[in-house]
Write a structure and sequence with these properties.
Blueprint lengths: L1 H4 L2 E4 L2 E4 L5 E6 L4 E7 L3 H18 L4 H17 L1 H12 L3 H25 L3 E4 L2 E7 L2 E5 L5 H15 L2 E5 L6 H12 L7 E3 L4 H10 L5 E5 L2 H11 L5 E5 L5 E4 L5 H13 L11 E5 L3 H13 L19 H16 L3 E4 L17 E4 L6 H4 L6 E7 L2 H9 L6 E5 L3 H10 L4 E4 L17 E2 L4 H7 L1 E6 L8 H6 L6
Parallel strand pairs: 7-8, 7-10, 8-9, 10-11, 12-13, 12-17, 13-16, 15-16, 17-18
Antiparallel strand pairs: 1-2, 3-4, 5-6, 6-20, 11-19, 14-15
Length: 492
């Protein structure tokens, strides 16, 4: 199915041949071999997809909550049924270890749909205050740009709330990991999505992404990607004054306070920072530790990193596959060299591939210590399995170091004193703070301060990004409960 659909776009409820366009190679990062090609769309394909979405919007925006819940339910069921197919695609397109794809990449993607169903069931689209009604209405046609590091997860994090809100959409997945998106488009078709409500155009950010961002018939654009890409999208979107939601880069701190359980906190911190091969915007890659416990932390961190099994992603025993693409592999190698050049203490890992792996974009789990705040590895997003251990003298300095970044996406705090941890968490300038490694929460607002972006995703916060607010003054003080939940007007 993947090779068959690679030359097609999903527009207006059907697969359409892409015509005379360039083909982009899809590379398996474990073998470095080209495993297929996809069509690279152009502005003309964007025009077709946006027109289909625009035509579908009037009807779809007026559907009932029950109708949209039914669609989301079918999407959720199909994703769970096809979980193994999606996991295999993720292994092939971005090198995810199959165990990680099965345990995290696919289930978390499914959870985004379930959370939106739960949110939609409770959400009130109309509220009354005196004689004024406030209505929340679908914003319109939405362009969704998703990244290569969590390909399926980020698709459902955007598509599910857009559908729940009653929006129509055009998806541009990353051209580096496009196969899970093709499978998802077929899933949407099989779920009975009305023609034009969901459209997919593959291609590059420079062409397809730019055309979507500047398109006058697109009402909102949501992008997950680098800060550089987010800036370019915002600039292109500005002349048409569309809403721009950005989930961008990060350089997240992990503060280990002096009363933390270091045997537990250090090991979990290393694994959290290197989850998904460190390819997560919110990965806690700056480990801040009390200076007087630095030696203890170094031993614990090194032991954890050395126990990570790097290898073939289809091997169930593998816990870390390759970096997802050549450009990112080279970026990670460059940053490891920068750490060495700047005088950081290399505890483990380093340049090159792990022993026994002569090809593929495999990288050694790497930890630096005695990292100073002005070093490149402490300031720039690396997006690989590289952790910087930074010593601090007291709590105030730890908070200052944590906030000394242009980013503000995620952060972690470890402490045996819940009140102390909460106090520190409230002082960190980041959109999401984790205390003592809690379970993932698909309803918790996710997004960044500063150059980590604008807007929020997940749960009710994600849903409301796809809604406009309308006030109706002089409206009756009475409104039926059913009307308040429709999301499509006020009449019974």
């Amino acid at each position: 199915m993947l090779t068959e659909r690679g030359d097609q776009f999903y527009i207006g409820g059907k697969w359409q041949e892409s015509g005379d366009v360039n083909r982009l190679p899809v590379v398996n990062p474990a073998s470095e071999r080209v495993v297929g090609h996809i069509a690279a769309g152009g502005a003309n394909h964007v025009d077709l997809a946006v027109a289909a979405a625009r035509n579908a919007f009037p009807a779809f925006s007026q559907t009932t909550v029950a109708e949209r819940l039914g669609l989301l339910g079918r999407m959720h069921s199909l994703l769970k049924e096809r979980a193994e197919t999606f996991a295999e695609a993720l292994v092939m397109e971005m090198g995810a270890a199959v165990s990680f794809a099965r345990a995290s990449q696919v289930p978390f993607a499914s959870e985004h749909i379930r959370v939106q169903m739960e949110t939609l069931e409770k959400y009130r689209f109309v509220t009354i205050n005196g004689r004024t009604a406030t209505a929340k209405e679908a914003i319109g046609v939405c362009a969704l740009i998703t990244p290569w590091n969590w390909p399926l997860y980020q698709i459902t994090a955007k598509v599910a709330p857009a559908i729940a809100a009653g929006c129509t959409l055009v998806l541009k997945p990353s051209e580096l990991s496009p196969y899970s998106a093709l499978l998802f488009a077929q899933l949407m078709h099989d779920a009975g999505i009305p023609p034009g409500v969901f459209n997919l155009v593959n291609g590059t950010g420079e062409i397809v992404g730019a055309a979507l961002a500047s398109h006058p018939e697109v009402d909102m654009i949501s992008i997950t990607g680098s800060t550089r890409a987010g800036v370019l999208v915002a600039q292109a979107a500005a002349p048409t004054v569309k809403r721009v939601v950005q989930e961008l880069g990060g350089k997240s701190p992990n503060i280990l306070l002096d009363d933390a359980d270091f045997n537990d906190a250090v090991a979990k911190g290393v694994l959290a920072g290197m989850r998904n091969v460190g390819q997560s915007c919110s990965a806690p890659t700056r480990m801040l530790v009390p200076a007087h416990r630095l030696g203890e932390v170094e031993e614990l961190a090194s032991a954890t990193a050395r126990a990570i099994r790097v290898g073939a992603p289809l091997d169930p025993a593998t816990t870390m596959g390759p970096i997802a693409n050549r450009a990112q592999f080279e970026r990670v190698q460059t940053m490891i060299q920068a750490g060495i050049d700047d005088g950081a203490k290399l505890l483990c890992g380093g340049l090159g591939r792990p022993a026994g792996l002569d090809s593929g974009f495999f990288t050694k789990p790497t930890i630096f210590s005695e990292v100073k705040a002005d070093m490149r590895i402490a300031r720039e997003e690396i997006f690989g399995p590289v952790i910087s251990i930074i010593p601090y003298k007291d709590e105030e300095e730890a908070i200052a170091i944590a906030n000394d970044t242009v980013y503000g996406l995620g952060a972690h705090v470890q402490s045996s004193d819940p009140e102390r941890a909460r106090r520190v968490a409230l002082r960190i300038r980041a959109g999401q703070v984790h205390i003592n490694y809690p379970a993932w929460d698909g309803a918790a607002a996710f997004g960044g301060y500063k150059r980590s972006g604008n807007g929020r995703e997940y749960g009710v916060y994600g849903l409301e990004e796809y809604l406009e607010t309308k006030s109706i003054l002089g409206y009756s003080a009475r409104v039926s409960a059913r009307s308040a939940r429709q999301g499509s007007g006020f009449s019974d």
